[in-house]
Q: What sequence folds into this?
């Protein structure tokens, strides 16, 4: 639910291979998810992260990609497309 919870979860669950991350999180503000993405990739460089937002600009998408996101989904999106990417990413 929050960025703090996500980081805490990652430090205690070492088997996580993929994260779905909304760019807007209640405790981090409009683009705080990008800050969280940076922290997640520092903590787990090989973990795949798929970002999403209902408010994604070209700048936000480019920054997510630069920080290591596998993909960026604009909300709303087709669940089938997300599931396909998840299957391809984690094999």
A:
């Amino acid at each position: 639910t929050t960025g703090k919870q996500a980081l805490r979860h990652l430090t205690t669950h070492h088997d996580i291979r993929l994260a779905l991350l909304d760019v807007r999180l209640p405790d981090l503000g409009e683009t705080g998810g990008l800050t969280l993405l940076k922290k997640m990739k520092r903590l787990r460089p090989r973990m795949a992260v798929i970002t999403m937002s209902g408010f994604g600009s070209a700048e936000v998408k480019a920054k997510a990609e630069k920080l290591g996101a596998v993909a960026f989904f604009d909300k709303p999106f087709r669940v089938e497309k997300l599931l396909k990417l998840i299957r391809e990413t984690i094999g």
